[in-house]
């Protein structure tokens, strides 16, 4: 096989082509990362924290724990369809606290008594751009995809009209 520079190009042309391709790929990666950061910009400013207070159970001895859940909107824009779900692990009790919107600087607080199992307690909300988010009690933030939206509505057992209102795309 003949490596004629007229056919295959010179080493400098190849290096220039590879460099241009690498620059294009790097630019694309930076654009995607920046878009992801902008997408999460408001949601990152929504705080969710849990404070547990073990107290003596005066009804039957033992200990009862009161968990105080708080969602705080630290962003500059309102958030919508804010919900705190507090369910003991392995049980189904529909302990939901919700508000239609939470203005900047406002908080949503909810206290739940439990005695048997650890609580699963996510906070769910919709940002000002219409994206739905889930923040767990460890502080991890996740955007809700279509499958998670379906699971969320099923677990909350909300009415069809409310579901269509919340998840209207």
Q: What attributes does this structure have?
A:
single chain; 169 residues; alpha+beta; five-stranded antiparallel β-sheet; three-stranded antiparallel β-sheet; elongated; disordered C terminus
SSE layout and pairings?
Blueprint: H1 5-8, H2 11-39, E1 46-56, E2 63-73, E3 79-85, E4 87-88, E5 96-102, E6 107-114, E7 119-120, E8 123-126, E9 132-135, E10 141-143, H3 146-156, H4 160-166
Description:
With 169 residues, this protein is an alpha+beta fold. The protein contains four helices and ten strands; from the N terminus they run H-H-E-E-E-E-E-E-E-E-E-E-H-H. It has a five-stranded antiparallel sheet with strand order 5-3-8-9-10, with no helix packed on it. The chain has a three-stranded antiparallel sheet with strand order 1-2-6, with no helix packed on it. Strands 4-7 form a two-stranded antiparallel sheet. Strand 9 (132-135) and strand 10 (141-143) form a beta hairpin. The protein is elongated. The model is unreliable at 158-169 (pLDDT under 50).
Average of per-residue pLDDT values = 77
Helix percent reads 25-40%
N-to-C terminal Cα separation, in Å? 58 Å
| Biggest β-sheet description | 5 strands, antiparallel
Strand order of the largest sheet: 5-3-8-9-10
Structural class, by secondary structure, is alpha+beta
Report the sheet-strand fraction: 25-35%
Number of strands: 10
- N-to-C SSE string, H for helix and E for strand: HHEEEEEEEEEEHH
> Total number of helical segments?
4
Approximate shape: elongated
Spans where pLDDT lies below 50 across 5 or more residues: 158-169
Cα gyration radius (Å): 25 Å
